[in-house]
C-alpha cells in the first residue's frame, strides 16, 4: 500500500470515527488522576475502572492523602477494578514516589513516567494524551486489534503497533486516535462478534474483506 493510499485511508478512518463518536476527557484532565485511573484500568473493563476511580477519589481528594492512606482502605475502594491488592499497593507506592522524587507533580515526559512502578508504555502515553494533551500514541488492546483488522499494520503486540502507527499517522491526530478506536472497539469492532452491518469502516477493512 503506497504512502498516499495509506494517508487517504487514515483520513477516511478518522473522519468516519469522529462522525460516530464524541471525544471524551477523563478525570477532568488532571494528570495525577489520569495516572491513577490508568493504573486501575489495567486488565479490567472500563465500567469497573469508572467505579473504582469514583470510589477512590470520592474519599481521597489528592496525592498527599492517598500516599498516606491505609492500604486496606485503598484495597476496598478499588476492589471493583480487580487485582485490587496489587493495584492498591501500586497506587500508594507511585503516589509516594511522585511526592519524594517529583515534588508531587506527574512528569510530562515518557522517560520519567516509565520510571514509575507499574507504568508501561500504554499507561505513560495515556497520561501524556489525557493528562497533558501532549501528542503520544497510546496503544491498548483495542487500538492494537483494530489497526491490524483494518490493515494499517501487521504486528504481534501493542508496542510494535505503537511504533508502526507513529510512522503512519500524522502527529496532529495522535491525541484522538486512542479514544476514537477504544469507543469503536467497545461498541462495534468487538474482540468477538464484531457488528459488521453497522460498521462505518467495513468499506476499508481488511478483516471484513477476507470474511
- Kindly provide the radius of gyration, computed on alpha-carbon positions and rounded to a whole number of angstroms: 18 Å
Q: What percentage of the residues does DSSP assign to strands (E)?
A: under 5%
* Number of separate helices: 12
CATH architecture of the largest domain: Orthogonal Bundle
What is the subunit arrangement here? single chain
Q: Name the average pLDDT.
A: 96
What would the principal axes of the Cα set say about the shape?
elongated
Q: List low-pLDDT spans.
A: none
Total E-strand runs:
0
Tally of separate domains: 2
Keywords:
211 residues, mainly alpha, Endonuclease Iii, domain 2, Endonuclease III, domain 1, 2 domains, 12 helices, 62% helix, elongated
